[in-house]
């Protein structure tokens, strides 16, 4: 909660002053002035003096109002110094002494007492009890139209719900405080609590929205610098939750600057710890080392043992990460020393608290004895003997109760002393264990270096052998590649020679056919033309011989086409050829034909030319392109043939490389049919070839 105790004390002072105005007797006025002085001491930094004077005055006060206010002051004193049981005791004393104070100001004091009981039980870990007192305070506030105190209890109840894990109930109450409360402190606290709740639910955008509102409130009021620092720290934590490390660091540095300006040195230490942890997680070791070294110095100067202990722990981790075992050991030793010191201090604090309780009980015992003595003096003479017996009985009961309480406290003190002794023994054992571990580490380190030298030597020799073997493998690879290239060239040469022999045989066959058939027919036709003037009736014979010669030339041209072109559909031949190429290589070939029936009806001569183009392009890709995929598309549309060939190989630069024999032959074949050839290729971008051949006569 963000309700300052000082504000409650000011309100309590106003209540008390108003109560005092209603009292007119000299005794009451004197007691009112004394209580006024006690509150002045408490609110102006003299808490100890107020505490001592309150105990003295409590024995002499007669007015219920003075007793009520003094008990409540003692309750707030113990609450401030976290003596929870004592604070609860004096709060109940204030409620008991207020029985006859039933006006509106008395009701307000009751509501404040309920709030104090709720806070103390929450600090004690009794959250259900805390919830009960907040609910009672809220009901009483609502009944008597104490609006501000009503929302104060609602705010406290919401904080208790957060602790109990009832997030939805807490969200509803905080929203209600923002909407209806007029107290800036409550609204600011609600914004911050809502931001914290949504952050725990990983709803960082909603959390940041509430925190930004809280930030705006703090920035308008220069007295809320510490609250502003806390808001910015929460915003930084949200950025960390979202993984936005740079924004988180920016927020932390902003909070550090404000805390430094306001001299909030403890907050600055917390921020430095967060910055250092972020840098450590990002392995920015040098920056983290600088941050934690600076934090350690400031923590030592301020006497903040928790931050000092955490700084030693992080410095130990950084040293281990850097391999500096000596520094890590020293930092670890200091870490455990401070940790043990804190634990011992806590035990000692518990013993001191027990002693304070013991002294408090002793003082209360003295007060009860004095009250009994005063009661004894005011007894009637007639009833003196009976009253004395009653007094003795009461005194015996009180003595027995005090004796039991003293025994319990003494047992507690002895128990804490035994625990401290055991902790000291454990600390000594830890020191011995650390020294032993240090010796073992040094022995292991020396043995490691002794073994490391021959291992390094062997690794160097092995590395040299690997280099020699690698060079040998490279040489063998180059020789194998040269042999493969040579074999390919020999194979290509054999294929060329075989092709030339085949062409020579075809030429001889064509020449023989032309000489024997076509040549004889043409000679006969020539002879017939020479005798035409003398024998005109031979014209029909000449026409017949011309038809016969035409058929012979036609049959001869058909006989020149490959048998597979003559006897198979063109699309089937292309698919069969592509299947053979795919089996012989690791290339994937994608085919597309439209319309297949029309393509199969193309002239066999054109089919033969297209098949040769297919073969030439596929051969070039296999030899030079180093491609993984080939895409081929052949379309017969609008009396025009469109042929697209594309691969994803290494390509070539058309401005540098001239067309080879294969591409030149393709170009000549296309131009024979009045077609268009377009080649698009660039290094590392593959090759794209487009051919368009018109089929109209």
Automatic annotation (TrEMBL):
In its UniProt entry, what is this protein called?
A: histidine kinase
> So what does this thing catalyse?
ATP + protein L-histidine = ADP + protein N-phospho-L-histidine
Gene Ontology cellular-component terms for this entry are: membrane
Q: Which GO terms describe its molecular function?
A: ATP binding; phosphorelay sensor kinase activity; protein dimerization activity
* Pfam families linked to this entry: HATPase_c (PF02518), HisKA_3 (PF07730), TPR_8 (PF13181)
- Entry annotated with the keyword Kinase: yes
Domain Histidine kinase intervals: 509-697
Q: Which residues cross the membrane?
A: 442-463
Among CDD domains, the record links this protein to: HATPase_UhpB-NarQ-NarX-like (cd16917)
